[in-house]
Amino acid sequence: MFKSRQLLFSTLVFTLIPPFALKGAPNAIEYVGGTVKSIPVNATGTFDFDSSRELRFNYGGSVFALPYELITSTEVTKGESHHVLRKIPVPSLVPGRRRETLTIAYKDATGAAGTLNFELTANQAGEVQDNIAAGKAFAAATAAPGNEWWGDRYWKTNRNKSEWQPQSAQSTQASPSATPSTK
After folding, report:
1. pLDDT digits over 47-56, tens only?
2. Which of 8, 45, 87, 140 is the most exposed place for a label (fewest CB within 10 A)?
3. DSSP labels for 95-150?
4. Quick check: 69 and 140 in contact, CB under 8 A?
5. CA 55 – CA 36 distance, rounded (Å)
6. Which domains does the chain have, with CATH numbers?
């Protein structure tokens, strides 16, 4: 009697728990596609935010690094929900295990647009998006300042000498000559 009850209970548990709830490690981040060919599709790994200059994806002993200043946007899209008989939605039995797709858009050094698509849990997607925004803000704040100064528009200095010498040469050519005209 005890064995038949145990068998019945085991059968009920495994039929009620969908196979997708048992799939994979909960914290695994999977690369599902994009324009980067150096990362194999379906490679699993982790993000490394230790660098203040670049986002790193560690997978299978390799590392893909993307500087924060090249990232143009991030977007999180909800993953497909699971349905019984393609009509009845099945809720996730394990909280925080819903999978979402994180799309990272960037421009490479040549200016060509590219994307990275990762599948991760909903909790991780929010954290990764926040870390990328913080990395972009830090990279923008610590970027080398340009060679501009507001006083360059008003004063002639050695700093802006290349800009004001051609202007003074043009102004002397444009002025009318002082030679008298004869009639």
Report:
1. 999 988 999 9
2. 87
3. TT--EEEEEEEEE-TTS-EEEEEEEEEHHHHHHHHHHHHHHHHHHHHTSPP-S--G
4. yes
5. 14
6. 17-141 (2.30.29.30)
